[in-house]
Amino acid sequence: MGWRAVEGLVAGDMVLTFDNGFREVTAVESAKIWTGDGLAPQDHWLVEMPANTLGNRTTLRLPPQQGVMVESDAAELLYGDPFSVIPALALEALPGVSRLPVRAKTRCVTLRFAEEEVVFSREGGLLHCPSSRDLLDLDGDRPQYEMLPLTLARDIVETLTLQEARASELCPVI
Hints:
It comes from Roseovarius nubinhibens (strain ATCC BAA-591 / DSM 15170 / ISM). By secondary structure, the chain is α+β, with helices and mostly antiparallel strands. Helix content is 18%, strand content 29%. It has a single domain (10-133, 141-170), classed as Endonuclease - Pi-scei, Chain A, domain 1 (Beta Complex), CATH 2.170.16. The termini are far apart.
């Protein structure tokens, strides 16, 4: 049916995933990011990525702990895989990325699947979604996508910044 806003998805909808084609959404959760009065403390503020930060076509606003899949040469050298899932908070080191204050009414929508997935967003990002099983923690299986700790994720983002700088030196804009 084409791209739809995450708020319009319901359990049973099929969503395109990074590794597994179309998968059925098992649950859609919507929760307030901040339940207090006024502005949330800064650690709750959204990470705002302007268009073209990581291939996204429009601005993305993500919770700081939202998993984002990035591709980097450093990840391939360190982990044997060019793709890494990092917390959105690590992206604040990229040019133009900033934090956006959160008010009490701001909501976050989480898609859940039978197994954890990385999904394509309409804006062009690759976002990690937990499995319904994660809620129950029924088994001790290792997750398919391990999110890098913030310190390692920041190292990956630093290399992305260096790669971008080198690429702009090699390909000047005319």
